[in-house]
Amino acid sequence: MQEIAAKHILQRKKDSSWFGSDYNINLYQGCPHGCIYCDSRSACYGIEDFSRVRVKKDALLLLAEELRRCRKTGLAATGSMSDPYNPLEKEGRYTRGMLELLCRYRFGVSIATKSTLVLRDIDLLTEIAKHAPAIVKLTITTPKDELARVVEPHAPPSSERFAALEKLSRQGIFAGVLLMPVLPFLEDQPEQIRQLVRRCGECGAKFIYPYFGVTLRDRQREYFLAKLRDYSEVVWERYLDFGEEYQCLCPNQQKLWEIFCEECSKARIVWKMREIIALSRKEYETEQLRLF
Ligand code: SF4
């Protein structure tokens, strides 16, 4: 695996509005899962040959030093720019090394992934959860494996991600689903949303966080539209109506929201960010109250 230079690994965030995370960590650059809508292909990130994975040089050494110097612990998020459980992680074990460090320095973690490889690290997630939130967000955009193969061609199929979710939940990990993007005209049939939420309920998801649409810009839009056209000329033509819009929302998003909220309520799954954050912190706040 090629190494790239890095000065910092732990990045302080401006606020904690995204799942309560205070820091961002990206050990890898690039991702081979091939999602046709991936925002990390946008020109503003300047990453060439995005499907090739590179690792940041001395990433774990740098991270250890940064964590050691941190005056305040917090929740570190990973998975925003590349999947921390890409296939090379199996051998590389950088993400596992990161979890060991977060555990040692008593940080919490919030992981976004589409990979079942996260199951390998249940032991460390359980260890972290003894002192801070350990959140796993599995991205699932459709309950249909055949459609997932089109839009996320090299990631494990949705059925495997559901199975991983179930296993994490059974082991007591705070796990849920990022339902984003929901691609207009492909993944926005009410029945797909209904099925997906019900399946999440069966798998013990604690939360689902949705976005009924997709964001598209510059070269990422070009990549997406080219792949979409290969799949279906009819759907591709419908996207042309979005023009240069950044937020391409599902035209039936209002209806989808109603169905989504109704199904989540039935399955007792939370979906509002402040409720997700509160639930993820609940037992730690109780613990603090008991101490004082
Ligand atoms: S898993 Fe995430 S980072 Fe990787 S290609 Fe898909 S959307 Fe992009």
How would you describe this structure to a colleague?
This protein is an alpha/beta fold. It has a single domain (2-291), classed as Aldolase class I (TIM Barrel, Alpha-Beta Barrel), CATH 3.20.20.70. It contains eleven helices and twelve strands. The strands form three sheets. Strands 2-3-6-7-8-9-10 form a seven-stranded mixed beta sheet. A three-stranded mixed beta sheet has the order 1-5-4, with no helix packed on it. A two-stranded antiparallel sheet has the order 11-12. Iron/sulfur cluster is lined by residues 31, 33-35, 38, 40, 82-83, 114, 155.
How does the SSE layout of this entry go?
Layout: E1 2-4, E2 10-12, E3 23-25, E4 28-29, E5 54-56, H1 59-69, E6 75-78, H2 89-92, H3 94-104, E7 108-113, H4 122-128, E8 134-139, H5 145-151, H6 158-170, E9 174-179, H7 190-202, E10 208-210, E11 213-215, H8 218-231, H9 233-240, E12 247-249, H10 253-267, H11 273-291
Parallel strand pairs: 1-5, 3-6, 6-7, 7-8, 8-9, 9-10
Antiparallel strand pairs: 2-3, 4-5, 11-12
Bound molecules: iron/sulfur cluster.
The beta-strand count equals 12
The radius of gyration computed from the alpha-carbon positions, rounded to a whole number of angstroms, is 19 Å
How many structurally independent domains?
1
H/E element order: EEEEEHEHHEHEHHEHEEHHEHH
Report the span from N to C terminus. 49 Å
Which structural class is indicated by helix and strand composition? alpha/beta
Overall average residue pLDDT: 96
Strand count, sense and barrel status of the largest sheet are: 7 strands, mixed
CATH class term: Alpha Beta
Q: What do we call the CATH topology?
A: TIM Barrel
Instruction: Provide the β-strand percentage band.
Output: 15-25%
CATH superfamily: Aldolase class I
Widest sheet: strand ordering: 2-3-6-7-8-9-10
- CATH architecture, by name, is Alpha-Beta Barrel
| Percent helix range | 40-55%
Q: Please state the overall shape, judged from the principal axes of the Cα atoms.
A: globular
Task: Figure out the total of helices.
Answer: 11
Unreliable residue runs? none
